[in-house]
Design brief:
Layout: H1 16-32, E1 59-63, E2 69-71, E3 74-76, H2 78-91, E4 97-101, H3 107-119, E5 125-127
Parallel strand pairs: 1-4, 4-5
Antiparallel strand pairs: 1-2, 2-3
Length: 138
């Protein structure tokens, strides 16, 4: 008895290579594309002056993590803050106001203070920050 071989079938086309190409295209366009919304005008973020000496004089307003306030080292209630700041800024309009908030203070305690200080007529409000420590060997 003679056995005959079945006719050879064409191997099916694989789409693995196509999947790789699509994946590389996806990664390529993700890397070159902008993912953030752009403003319709130019925005130049402020430059931090870390390492510079803190300006002397002026008023220092400290904010605790719980939102408690101290004006020049003396605890003060939020209700009395506006009047005291207004009086001090009326006497010397060019007075610098330093806002020194604890690093764990929530932003909801800090931002309204900046608005209130500016509304009272302060020209300059400085946010006190601590620079990151330099890596060893620098």
């Amino acid at each position: 008895m003679k056995l005959s071989r079945p006719p050879a079938r064409q191997p099916p086309e694989t789409i693995i290579a196509l999947i790789d190409v699509v994946f590389f295209l996806l990664v390529f366009f993700m890397l070159i594309g902008r993912m953030d919304a752009t403003a319709p005008f130019e925005v130049s973020p402020p430059v931090a002056a870390t390492g510079a000496d803190m300006p002397s004089g002026g008023i220092t307003l400290a904010v605790a993590p719980t939102g408690e306030l101290a004006l020049d080292g003396t605890p003060i209630e939020r209700g009395a803050l506006d009047q005291v700041l207004a009086d001090r800024l009326d006497q010397a309009p060019d007075t610098l106001v330093r806002l020194n908030a604890h690093r764990d203070t929530e932003l909801r305690h800090v931002l309204p203070l900046v608005s209130r200080i500016e509304a009272l007529g302060a020209r300059d409000v400085v946010l006190v920050v601590t620079p990151e420590p330099a890596p060893p060997g620098q």
